[in-house]
Amino acid sequence: MMRTAISILKKDLRMEFRSKESILAMWIFSLLIFVIFNFTFEVSRLVMLEIAPGLLWVAFVFSGMFGLNQSFALEKENGNLRAMALMPVDGGQIYVGKFFSVTIIMLMFEALIFPIFIIFYDLQLSLGMFRLIPVLLAGTIGFTSLGTILSAVAVHTRNQQILLSLLLWPLVSPIIIWSVTLTGMVLSGEVTAAFYPLLLRVGAFDVIFFTLSYMLFDFILED
Amino acid sequence: MRSKIDKILLIILLIAFSVSIYLIFQWVPQIKASNPAEQIAQRIFYFHVPSAWLGFLAFFIVFCGSVAYLATRKRKYELISVASAEIGVLFISLVLITGPIWAKPVWGIWWTWDVRLTSSLILWLIYVAFLMLRRYLPDGSKRANLSAVVGIIGFTDVPIVYYSIRWWETQHPKAVMASSDGSLAAPMFFAFMFSLATFTLLYVYLIRKRYQLLTLEDTLNKQFKEMEIL
Fold first, then answer.
1. B129 contact A CB<8A
2. SS3 of B182, please?
3. What confidence tens digit (pLDDT) does each residue in B84-129 have?
4. How many domains does chain B have?
5. A219/B148 CB distance under 8 A
6. ipTM score of complex
7. Chain B partners within 8 Å of A149 (Cβ)
8. What pLDDT, in 10s, does the model give residues A53-82?
9. Are B139 and A191 in contact (CB under 8 A)?
10. Which residues of chain A have a CB within 8 Å of the CB of B157?
11. Is B132 an 8 Å CB contact of chain A?
12. Domain boundaries, given as residue ranges, for chain A
């Protein structure tokens, strides 16, 4: 039943592993954000600790746009998008395939940039840092579930890249706000009782965004 | 028939707005505030809150129009949601303008990143993006589909945006209508309700007008196309 989704996912990942285009661009771009940030806001280490979670998510969100833009822009070449629309399958399948490929690529990029982040901002590694894994997972899924459908919307326009940012950022702002709060709790080691309910809330909205996008995706492919 | 209703609406609106301006600036008693600037600034509330209400109503209609469009594929619903989105953006802009005008004398600052202010701004951004999306797309069923999808996702996001910023301390005045201690005096309440009704009527008038204009544009485009074929 999920065959179409799986083949799209396989195809996207194979393309990414051969070219490494998105991951490399995202990684370098994040590095640039860290460097520029360092020079534009020369802050003390204490202040740095306070703004580090925000900085991390700024890097994720800005770099994540590369992956999202790429995801459907690639399909536009050689009329692939039209071919996809003509496939006699449920449009939701295409969404699922695209969602997983974008999410996996983005999570891999996050795993690769995180060590650099730790080194640059001199954060202490501890066992509690493992709590960051569900946080990054939930935040990223929220970002990509909305991002995938809006990328498919924006790809039909002339100004795809700017429009995707304009559409996505205000809509995804709640997820980012919560993710920054959660990341801050983990990085500072002050995981309060509010941590898990908040994490659960992000997860719940991930489910809502994913389901809604899955249902609506058919309309986007239609001509 | 259509224009007759509009004419009557317009006349009612002219009268209603004159009455509400009289109510707001003459009839309603001065509030008791230590700061004289606040006493005058408070009257902006009668424009600020109805504008916000109108914005939400307009975005709700965008959502309804989008769902109806995807269900029926009737051009009518697409045009209604576009017209409503435009009006919504206009009135949320008014909210974002009148708010700081009040805030400066009362709070001493134009802007603060408080829940209501931030969520109104994000809301505004969502629907501006919706209108920009339509700008960037050529007319046709594709555009109708895409904007309907964004119209649905956008409105679903509204409560989430509000919820996400809620726990921050709020500086914004509480919803006065809801308080049980009767903090809104009877004349104020009446003036407010009158203003609210007037604004709602204004919405009805504006959306009718905008919808008619969009239909006219459609007819004109169709005629141009026919001429080109000849």
1. yes
2. coil
3. 999 999 999 999 999 888 888 888 888 888 778 888 899 999 999 9
4. 1
5. yes
6. 0.87
7. 149, 153
8. 999 999 999 999 988 998 888 888 878 888
9. no
10. 170-171, 174
11. yes
12. 3-221
